[in-house]
Write a structure and sequence with these properties.
alpha/beta, Histone, subunit A, about 55% helix, Rossmann fold, single chain, about 300 residues
């Protein structure tokens, strides 16, 4: 397989070995790695986000890791602009860009483009939510179809979140949300990408998750959360949602013991891995699915 001319995408659930596989691939392809994980961009979340080790940085050039302050807002659009710039820079150096991470929305934005729907004013959004609560989902859905008939073929009548979103977009922009999606463009073509998804068996993954939680706590996750608390990050910031912050904070406040804290972090990580797998089934059907035991064989084939 000649993959040097491609943009390599590597995804999979958390703890599936994506980072190590990306490094092995980069060595073989003379590649450079670009972070595609929404938590690994934050400099304050080295351990909780399982950022690749510094010794690996020295062997292979890594980009977009640990550069953003947790106190600042960092969107998918922000990541996309930086990632595209890095891809072109790596290509100019005659190297292979390898994007690795577990944030499905980042991959979707890169391969399909990012929808540039104008921001809906909070006053309008709140008004629509009040209306939805008053009417109930069934009547509100009918009201949506009167406003935006295209939604009939696109949105399940029971999908509350998407129904409200479609209504507010059409009401404010006068254009169907589905037309916004159709008008979205990407700077790349489908043939530019080679997409790999590490399909980790669930039971084995659960074992790996528990192992990772132990390693994180032994490796300094508690002091990391202590430092994070001192930053006083606003609750609406993405970094605040990192698994482990609230759980370790509860432990530090003596509301949970260490064993309980480990278990809660592991359960939430398992739930996150399940959401990643669900996303993959819905959005990554055209990706090459590789079992973990097949990764070395794949490297040798190149």
């Amino acid at each position: 397989m000649d993959l040097k001319s491609k943009i390599i995408l590597i995804s999979g659930p958390t703890a599936s070995g994506k980072s190590n596989f990306a490094i092995d691939l980069a060595k073989k392809l003379n590649g450079e790695i670009i972070n595609t994980d929404s938590m690994q961009v934050y400099k304050e979340l080295k351990i909780l986000s399982a950022r690749p080790l510094k010794k690996n940085y020295q062997k292979i050039k890594h980009h977009l890791y640990g550069f953003q302050s947790a106190k600042k807002t960092f969107s998918t659009g922000d990541w996309l602009k930086l990632a595209i710039t890095k891809i072109f820079e790596i290509k100019e150096r005659k190297k292979t860009p390898i994007l690795v991470g577990g944030t499905g929305l980042y991959f979707k934005a890169l391969t399909e483009g990012l929808v540039s729907i104008p921001e809906i004013p909070l006053k309008i959004r709140n008004k629509i939510r009040v209306l939805h609560k008053k009417l109930g989902q069934s009547k509100f859905y009918i009201k949506l179809l009167n406003l935006d008939p295209i939604s009939k073929e696109k949105i399940n009548p029971n999908d509350t979140q998407r129904t409200i979103r479609a209504y507010e977009v059409k009401l404010f922009t006068k254009k169907s949300i589905h037309q916004w999606f159709e008008d979205t463009k990407t700077v790349f073509q489908e043939k530019d990408f080679y997409k790999i998804y590490i399909d980790f068996p669930r039971q084995e993954l659960i074992h790996k998750i528990y192992q990772r939680v132990d390693e994180m706590l032994a490796g300094g996750a508690i002091p990391e959360v202590k430092r994070f608390i001192k930053l006083k990050v606003n609750k609406d910031k993405t970094a605040k949602k990192a698994i482990g912050i609230n759980e370790i904070t509860e432990y530090l406040n003596k509301n949970k013991n260490l064993a309980e804290t480990k278990e809660i972090i592991a359960i939430k990580t398992r739930q996150y891995a399940k959401r990643q797998s669900t996303w993959a089934r819905g959005h990554m059907n055209d990706w090459l699915k590789i079992k973990p035991q097949e990764l070395n064989k794949f490297i040798k084939k190149i």
